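hiii, so i know i said id send this last week but things got crazy w the move. better late than never?? heres the sequnce for the chain we talked about at the cafe, plus the structure i predicted for it. fair warning i was half asleep when i ran it
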Amino acid sequence: MSKSKNRYIDTPQCTLDIEGAIDIYLESLKSRNLRPSTVVMYERDIREFAASKEITDPEQITYDMIRSHIADLMEKVGASTVEKKRIVLCTWLRFLNLEGIAELPDISARIRKIKVDITPRVVCRMKSWRR
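okay and structure toks below
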């Protein structure tokens, strides 16, 4: 039996369920000394995706699933939030591929960046009326 090329688990090559794949990714984020709030945000976004598409195995993930998830998000939240979630998912998918956790086609390269409108906002300040 061949060894896994995954540097986060030193066990014979085996498949992981979605929970294991997420947990290994989160451990890798923690080992990079990311802020705890960043790790929590990544976890929330990835688990939200997995739950919404009822994914039990990372190798089930398809381009259409991600496109559908992004379309659903576009109806609920702003473009900048959707773009942040897209980046989280693409980073996670790249990690799964690079670490040999799941053999996925390069889905992340096919998912286009979400255009975010960055028009300047005008802030009005009212003088407080004091007597």
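btw The chain has five helices and no strands. thought thatd interest u
miss u guys!!
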